[in-house]
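Section: Multi-chain targets

For targets with more than one molecule, the full set of components is provided together so that the structure can be written out for the assembly as a whole rather than chain by chain. Components appear in the order listed by the source. The example entry contains two components.
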Amino acid sequence: MDRRALFFITAAVACALLVPVTPPSLRYVGFSLCGAYVLLAFLSYMDDRSRHSR
Amino acid sequence: METFLLYLVIAVALGFDFVNGFHDAANSIATVVATRVLSPRVAVAWAAAFNFIAFLVFGTKVATTIAKDVVEPSVQSIGVIFAALVGAIIWNIVTAILGLPSSSSHALVGGMMGAGMAKAGTHVLIGSGLRRIGVFIVYSPLIGLALAFSVTIVITWIVHRSRRPRVVNKTFRSLQLVSAAMFSLGHGANDAQKTMGIILALLIAGGKVDATSDVPTWVVLSAHSAIALGTLFGGWRIVRTMGTKLTKLQPMGGVAAESSSAAVLFFVSAKGIPVSTTHTITGAIVGVGSANRLSAVRWGVARRVAWAWVFTIPGAAVMAAATYGIVAIFN
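Its structure, encoded as tokens over all components, is:
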């Protein structure tokens, strides 16, 4: 797995872990950020795969 | 005598704000200087102007958070706030010597916590306010990173499709002025408000204003003036150094990093959350770098920022608690 995707997954995990301690009115920030990092990790992984398959 | 001490500590708080402007000017305009869009002097004046007018755009929610949501207002006294400020200043000096990129904002919050606890114990800390500040210490650079990464990808895609590189370059040079202005606006809004919060807490402690009152207009104006003057008087020297060191900077990357961190600062200022402007733009710069490849990021610097995250609040708290111990002897 490429290092950048791994980095984004780690960031997503960090955001997910912070959600329970985030005040309820701001939890959407944690959820959105976690979702964004999962998406970035997926896109980064796809990008890496397409580069290596060329 | 108490009134004299009150105004003396207000002067120290404004001095803290001045140094903040002095120090952080380079964050917003280094890219504009490095790419020779503006000369260092004009760039500094540009940043200072936007630092100052931030009070017209944003409210004072961050100031209220600092004054009322960190330590119980009932235990805040002139001595406590003086100790908090001195603790934060000492921590900033120690980390500057050690070369750790610590945050003045986190140091201020840590200082308030330490001085408050030294006076009356841990029960004076306001959990809900500290939780909000604590989670955004991590969230703000991560939002900046994700935004800057995405903006860089979009910009790169646009640039690659364009067949007129000269026009693209000219466009990004102009956009840099806008993104630097936006970042300075966000910086002025969030960082000047921290000083406003300290001064509001002092005025409440000194019985000059009611505990439920808003930030007086003269406090708003003086805090914005102090940060803008700091930017104006000190910043250009730092910018000159930064401008020559950062010769490999591309206008595209500068626009992406500054606009993304400005968006973060606008959001947190509107929500009343004090964050580190330096850490926010550091996250955004990492985002720009990682859009190329992870090895483009200087991870050693990122690691030092992470260590500063971990140690600043407890470190400044210890310094402030020790300072309060000395203040209490003379009280």
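Chain B touches chain A at residues 128, 131-132, 134-135, 138-139, 142-143, 145-146, 149-150, 271, 290, 293-294 (CB under 8 Å).
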